[in-house]
Specification:
The chain is α/β, with parallel strands linked by helices and 338 residues long. It has a single domain, classed as TIM Barrel. The strands form two sheets. Strands 1-5-6-7-8-9-10-11 form an eight-stranded parallel β-sheet. Strand 2 and strand 3 form a beta hairpin.
Length: 338
């Protein structure tokens, strides 16, 4: 079956050329380890070791061939959002990252689709770079974080960004970053295990309660990691909405669960029972293959969970590629060929 992986990350191996210009130590920098791996440093400390498949597109293609992934949707590594940066430096970094993704796509246009990053800390610059991503670089959309320097995505200062994305037909992928409570639960990798699902739910709730999907009904927005904890707490969220509308319904008077057919999630849940729950709760039409390639918390064989489930071929193909094409605004005839 044809497979499109909407959740994959890439970084430029020459990242230091741009981050080395800035004095803020929080900017990510690369330290070579050997020919196949590098260390990412942040704040003068080791942040993460990554292998060459994080930057070498030829290696990515080989690994995609091994797992029968036809197309990867490329997006930057979320730690590079850098929303805390000075406005001009944030824009410069975004431009560098987006130019890199564009070059990779041009090298292998039949294997990669791209979504860019935008400096959310400055609305004017964010819209400007979104325009460049869609109109000049021919990317299909943008990736944004679950919060911007602690501000929820419902904040009015972000509304022009969503309005412009709807106008352009830009797809949006929301990925958790700068997880709430991170400094309080560093042990056991809890920011990634507890904080990330909570951050994604925070983003979805903010989008719904803030009326974003009501104001911009044609917005094409998807959320990482199976929607985080949101789908599994929708009963609690709806109940709170009904019982305390004075707190929950101040910006939007529609039941939260009524919006579950108006956004997408990826399939990265690692568990068949969880996937079945999502299929029952949201439907295959709202779920797209996403692996978090090339990181260890991702699905190591993208699509294997879906492929091994007792589902019809039609449902599997929808999950593996059909939903992705719809979210990206592309047609099956362009990509899925027998």
């Amino acid at each position: 079956m044809f497979k499109i992986d909407i959740h994959t990350h890439i970084l430029p191996e020459n990242l230091n050329e741009v981050t080395g210009r800035f004095s803020d130590s929080r900017f990510l920098k690369i330290e070579p380890i050997d020919t196949r791996s590098i260390m990412l440093n942040k704040d003068g400390k080791e942040f993460r070791k990554v292998n060459c498949n994080c930057w070498d597109y030829k290696m990515r293609i080989k690994e995609c061939d091994n797992t029968k992934v036809n197309i990867q949707v490329l997006s930057t590594v979320p730690v590079l959002f850098s929303y805390w940066a000075k406005d001009d430096e944030g824009l410069t970094l975004a431009q560098f990252l987006n130019d890199h993704i564009s070059r990779i796509i041009n090298n292998a246009p039949d294997r990669f689709i791209g979504i860019g990053t935008i400096p959310m800390q400055k609305t004017e610059f964010a819209i400007k770079e979104m325009d460049r991503c869609i109109n000049d670089l021919k990317l299909q959309g943008i990736q944004i974080g679950s919060n911007v320097n602690g501000a929820n995505l419902s904040s009015e200062k972000f509304h022009p960004i969503f309005e412009h994305a709807e106008k352009l037909g830009s797809s949006i992928f929301v990925h958790p970053w700068e997880m709430m409570g991170q400094i309080d639960m560093e042990k056991y990798w809890l920011p990634w295990l507890v904080g990330m699902p909570a951050e994604t739910s925070r983003a979805i709730c903010s989008i719904i309660f803030g009326g974003i999907l009501e104001k911009y009904p044609n917005l094409k927005i998807a959320f990482a990691h199976g929607g985080g904890s949101f789908p599994f707490t929708i009963g609690r969220i709806d109940h709170a909405y009904r019982m305390r509308p004075d707190l929950c319904a101040i910006d939007n008077d529609k039941l939260p669960s009524s919006y579950m057919k108006h956004f997408y999630i990826d399939s990265l849940v690692h568990d068949e029972n969880t996937m079945r729950f999502l299929l029952e709760t949201m439907g295959a039409e709202q779920i797209a293959l996403g692996s978090d390639y090339p990181f260890p918390l991702g699905e190591q064989h993208p699509g294997k969970l879906i492929e091994e489930m007792d589902l019809t071929d039609l449902t599997k193909q929808r999950l593996l590629a059909g939903t992705a094409l719809e979210w990206l605004g592309l047609t099956e005839s362009e990509y899925i060929r027998n």
